[in-house]
Amino acid sequence: MAYLELNNVCKTYGEGVHATEVLSDINLSIEEGEFVAIVGFTGSGKTTLVNLINGLLKPTGGEILFKGKAVSGTSHERGVIFQNYSLLPWLTVGQNVSMAVREAFPNEKRKAVKERVAQYVEMVGLTPAISKRPKELSGGMRQRVAVARALSMNPEMIIMDEPLGALDALTRGNLQDEILKIWSKDRRTALLITNDVDEGLYMADRIIPLRPGPRATLGPEFKIDIERPRDKTELNDNPFYKKTRNAIIEYLMSIGEERKTVSGKVYALPELSPKSFVA
Amino acid sequence: MKQSVTVSKTADLKVSSALKILVSRLNIKAPKFNPNTIFKKVVVPILSILLFIGLWHVGARSLYNIEADFKIEKALADQGQAAADSMAACIASGDISCQPNTLPSPAQVWDSFNTLIADHQVISADKLAFKDKTAALNEKRIAEGKDPITYTGRPSFVDQIFTSLKTVFAGFLLAFMIAVPIGIVIGLSQTLRNSFNWLIQVFKPVSPVVWLLLVFMIVKTMTKDSNQDSAFIISFISVGLCAMWATLVNTAMGVSSVDKDYINVAKVLKLKPLQKVFKVILPSSLPLIFTGLRITLSVAWMVLIAIELLAQSPGLGSFVWEEFQNGANDSNSKIIVAMFVIGIIGFLLDRIMLTIQNMVSFNKNAAT
Known about the structure:
The structure holds two protein chains of two kinds.
Chain A: E1 4-13, E2 20-30, E3 35-40, H1 46-54, E4 61-66, E5 69-70, E6 78-81, H2 93-104, H3 110-123, H4 139-152, E7 157-161, H5 169-186, E8 189-194, H6 197-203, E9 206-210, E10 222-223, H7 232-235, H8 239-262
Parallel strand pairs in A: 3-8, 3-9, 6-7, 7-8
Antiparallel strand pairs in A: 1-2, 1-4, 4-5, 9-10
Helix pairs in contact in A: 2-3, 2-4, 3-4
Chain B: H1 2-29, H2 35-79, H3 81-93, H4 106-144, H5 157-188, H6 190-203, H7 208-222, H8 231-256, H9 260-268, H10 273-311, H11 316-326, H12 331-360
Helix pairs in contact in B: 2-3, 4-12, 5-6, 5-8, 5-10, 6-8, 7-8, 7-10, 8-10, 10-11, 10-12, 11-12
């Protein structure tokens, strides 16, 4: 039995004539302790998929099973890191994290909560900024707060929705390493949604491309059998890495081409010639 | 070698231009050292005030002349040359009995202001004396179980200001206590919003005068058997009802338009409904609520004058009305003094609200 299972899941927005099917026929199963990456174009329905899995949205059809039980609403067992950090701007770093801790561990004493907050803020290296507000932090620091908040609830599975999408390349690399480091400590099940093939290749055990929407569905999976910890510079010379990377990109490009030819309608233009204003 | 030289030169250039930008930034931050900023922020406003007073003086002067000419011509037509001459002489001498009644000049207003302050000093001295005189008697009366004797002389201008402030704060508090809770409840539910929308849209544009009459109808009946003065109650309730709409609408809007990301956070953290309201929805709508309260306070101050004027409740509004009815020689200039006092107090109240608004706002650059 898989840890997380999606069977024939589809999601439609709107009703009747205006209905648009964003996702259709999604089948996915993730084993415990696995790190899976879903790679797709922007606008292909990645965020919808994430919100279905974390319970913010309900599927129109099919079922989502988490540990054998149907997902109904959000749960503390599945921690979420949002694309745009979603920190509460009126709370400090510590308060943002402690809000999550207090919800996840309602019976813990004040002191224990404080310690847990301090521990997770320390883990993402933000102890000096613990009493700062999100506005005073850089993008990378904000995303680290979001990571700390998600992990402080001690979730069994962690879902990341393009967590590093808004960051510059250097910060991105650093945070990838940090997330991997944290993940490798207890190897929780992780689902990473990204638009960066390299990021998926570097971090995940398995990459599944999402064919672009409407009616987006998952493509064939690619296993990444590269030993951890992986080294970015060595990866570039790894023949398996190169092969897989090319295969994935080729696949994504081919669906991109498909999409282009679908919309390759020829429009007849009216014959117009510029009017002369001189004469 | 040559290349490296040019590189270092451009680097130099970059550094110097960066320095220049830095220096210009610093200058903006420290206005003391920049004569341009002093000119803009101090000299220009002062010049504009002087220009305003000058125009006012010239305007008042010409209105005065029109009124004076009219008076002389009227005397000439009614009573002949001798009467006209004596009228002209009378006006020129500055005798109070025959002064033209028109827009007062800045100097007259300033004199009236001083008169009002002097009057206040006289009245407060009088009050103090009265208190001293009745202290022993009042003690006796209280011991006997009777009401103490209170000062019933006429209030001074400064007393009127404080009465008005009291009324406006009572009204503001009422508006706050009605509008914020209702706004939150309405904001949380789309159904309630739809069902109350007509009520808000219909009552929002109703004039303060009508509110006053409505409140008067109700309060008059409710305070029938008590012999206390209901004017204060009527005026503060009317002020509250007129002014609360901005807060109501803003609160409902703030609560209903909370960023979807924050709602998602609340869902993912599994906050209970009440916690969701107090920890996520309210903090994120605070800036809008305070914008509403700020508008409410300025509306309250604006309608207060009209309401006091009609409700016969003491305050600046009735001061203005009484002066207008009085028609004394310096009544017009006293009305202008009241106008400036009302304006300046309104401005100060708005500044206070803005400061509070900026204090609670997490988005520091939102309001100016």
